[in-house]
Amino acid sequence: MGKKLELAIAILNGVVGDHLARTGNGLATDMAFVRDGRPVADVGSDERVAVLVHGLMCTEDIWRLPDGGDYGASLQADFGYAPLYVRYNSGRSIESNGRALATLLSELVAAHPRREILLVGYSMGGLIVRSACHLASLEEQAWLPLVKRAFYLATPHRGAPMERAGRVVSALLARVPDPTVELIAQLAELRSAGIKNLGDSRHPIAMLPSIRHYLIAGSLRNEPFLTELFGDTMVPVSSGTDGYRAGPRALPPSHVKVLAGLSHMDIAHHPDVYRQIHEWLEEDR
């Protein structure tokens, strides 16, 4: 399957993926570890693995760095983490994908003994990481104690304003007594559960205290008002940092970083982001 077709299917899954899964449509993407664009049955017996979870309407290609590498390959070269890339249906609810990720990680640990699992989530992927860890803690799943550190890159911990605006517009359109406008409102409501979840003003579950959490947010502007309002163009800084830049902090300030000049898409594949990840891992050795 070509890269353009893979991306087109990823976008389709992001928009209406919950419907595709519910109706058994063959275009619905099942969550799996992938390598070279294909799901892999044997993920290897490496004791230390880094699991990378992409965001909405993406594939694992979103991680690709300008030099042809990616965060996973760099983690392997610098710290010995074997990279495992997750591909999934980003239109399903975050809770559903969190459960699917927890199942995938349970299978990973059951296949071979592991010493450590490093979690890296980009955008929606970070929320799915949080959801999977929460579920694993409730069910005492065997993989969770292996997770020492988790990295959240451009993750909307406190929601994405565009989706909240979309909810308001959709509700207003539904009140207009015009058949055409009503049709537009109905089409707007067809957006996936995954997209709708991004409008939540706060992720409903707390970060587990047993894991060291690290957050990276982006900001295209230096002006405080614009930074807070637009952040990386998709996620405001307060959402990307889960509010830990001000007031009582549940995380050490050193675990939260705002990188200026980076857009939402940049954060998935930028050398400055990997340098920050590298710095944190070096400090935490």
Explain what you see.
By secondary structure, this protein is an alpha/beta fold. It is built from ten helices and eight strands. The protein has one domain: Alpha/Beta hydrolase fold, catalytic domain (Rossmann fold). 41% of the residues lie in helices and 16% in strands. The radius of gyration is 19 Å and the shape is globular. It starts with a helix and ends with a helix.
Summarize the structure.
The protein has one domain (3-283): Rossmann fold. The chain is 41% helix and 16% strand.
Name some characteristics of this structure.
Rossmann fold; 10 helices; alpha/beta; single chain; 285 residues
Domain count: the total is 1
Distance between the termini: 40 Å
Portion in helices: 40-55%
Number of strands: 8
CATH class reads Alpha Beta
Beta-strand level of the residues, as a percent range? Answer: 15-25%
Tally of contiguous helical segments: 10
Q: Architecture, according to CATH?
A: 3-Layer(aba) Sandwich
- The SSE order reads HEEEHEHEHEHHHEHHEH
CATH topology heading: Rossmann fold
Q: Tell me the major beta sheet.
A: 8 strands, mixed
Based on helices, strands and strand pairing, what is the structural class? alpha/beta
Strand order of the largest sheet: 2-1-4-3-5-6-7-8
Q: Roughly how many Å is the radius of gyration?
A: 19 Å
- Give unreliable regions as ranges: 163-176, 178-188
Q: Which helices and strands appear, and what pairs or packs with what?
A:
Elements: H1 3-22, E1 32-35, E2 38-39, E3 48-53, H2 71-79, E4 82-87, H3 94-111, E5 116-122, H4 124-139, E6 147-153, H5 161-174, H6 179-188, H7 193-197, E7 212-219, H8 224-230, H9 237-240, E8 256-260, H10 271-283
Parallel strand pairs: 3-4, 3-5, 5-6, 6-7, 7-8
Antiparallel strand pairs: 1-2, 1-4
Helix pairs in contact: 3-4, 5-6
